[in-house]
Amino acid sequence: MIENIRPDSLEELLTYLDQGDYYVFAGGTDLMIRKRQWQGAERRFDKAIIYLSHLACLRGIIETETHYEIMACTTQNEVAQSAILPEYIKAPIAQMATPSIRNLATIGGNVVNDASVGDSIPVFFALDAEVVLRSVHGVRRLPIEHFIQGKYHTALQHNEILEKICIPKINYDGFFYRKTGLRKASILSKLSVYVLFKVGESSMEDIRVVVGAVNDVPIRSREAELQLLMNGDVASLVAAYKNRMAASDDKRSTKVYREEIACRLIDYYLREVM
Ligand SMILES: Cc1cc2nc3c(=O)[nH]c(=O)nc-3n(C[C@H](O)[C@H](O)[C@H](O)COP(=O)(O)OP(=O)(O)OC[C@H]3O[C@@H](n4cnc5c(N)ncnc54)[C@H](O)[C@@H]3O)c2cc1C
Description:
This protein is α+β, with helices and mostly antiparallel strands. It is 33% helix and 24% strand. It has two domains: 4-168, Uridine Diphospho-n-acetylenolpyruvylglucosamine Reductase, domain 3, CATH 3.30.465; 174-273, Enolase-like, domain 1, CATH 3.30.390.50. The protein is built from eleven helices and 13 strands. Helix 9 (222-231) runs antiparallel to helix 10. Flavin-adenine dinucleotide is lined by residues 23-31, 33, 52, 72, 96-97, 101, 105-106, 108-110, 112-113, 117-119, 156, 161-162, 186, 188.
C-alpha cells in the first residue's frame, strides 16, 4: 500500500520533501498517465505520494508593480479566465487540453513535467519568465531558460518545489499564437509558434519569436530577434531559426512537417507586423 500524504502547510510539505523521496502530485494529469498500466489496473506508483495543490498559498495570481506572479498550483482554467492576466498569456493556455483537464491541471505541473510538447513553456520563454523554487533551506530564482534543461529534465532539486512563475509586465501591442495538432482540443502539439511584439513611436521596439514542440526545448534566438529589429529582414530570422531546428519523426508528426510549418508560420506572422 502506497502512502499518501496531504500536508497541512507549506512548511510541512517542504520538511517531508527534505527528508524523503516522494511523487509530488499537483493535478495529476501527467503523473496519472505516466504511471498507468493496462486497462483497469492500479497506477504503478512505487513510492509515497505527496499532494500540494490543496495548499492555498500555492494558488492564485498576483499582480505587482512590475510582474504577474502565477502561483504553481493555479490551474490552467484559472489562468485562462484570469481577470488580471493579459490576453497574450491567457490565449495560449486556453488552447491546452480540454475544459475538464484544465480544471485540474496546474501551470506548475506543465513546467516541471517539462515535456517537449508542454504548451506553457514556449510562452514563458518569450515572456522572459523566472521560476521561484523553494525548499526548507531557502529560495532560488532562475530564468525559465536555465530551469528547462532538456526533455523531462529541469534544474529542480529533489527537496524543492516550484512555488511560482514571475512574468515581467510589459504592454505588448500584439501577439500571434498557433498550435498545430490533429484536432483542436485534447491534443498535444505537433508544433507551436508564438510571436509577441511592441511597436515604438516610429518602428518596432521589441519582438520575440519562440517555437515550441520542435526541439526538446523551445527555440528562441535573442540574437536573431535583435537583428530583425535592426534590419527588418524576416528571411534572415527564419533562416536562423531553421538552423537551430532538430526535430524528429514520431507518432504525432514528421521532422519535415514540423520544421517546414514552423518556418512558414514565423514568416507569415512576421510579415504581418514588420
Ligand atoms: C487529455 C490530456 C490532454 C492534455 N493536453 C495537453 C496540452 O494540450 N498541452 C500540454 O502542454 N499538456 C497537456 N496535457 C498534459 C498535462 O495536462 C499538463 O502538462 C498539466 O499542466 C500538468 O499539470 P498537473 O498539475 O496535472 O501535473 P502533475 O501530473 O501533478 O505533475 C507533473 C509533474 O510535475 C511535478 N510537479 C507538479 N507540480 C509541482 C510543483 N509545484 N513543484 C514541483 N514539482 C511539481 C510532479 O511531481 C510531476 O513530475 C494533457 C494531459 C491530458 C491527460
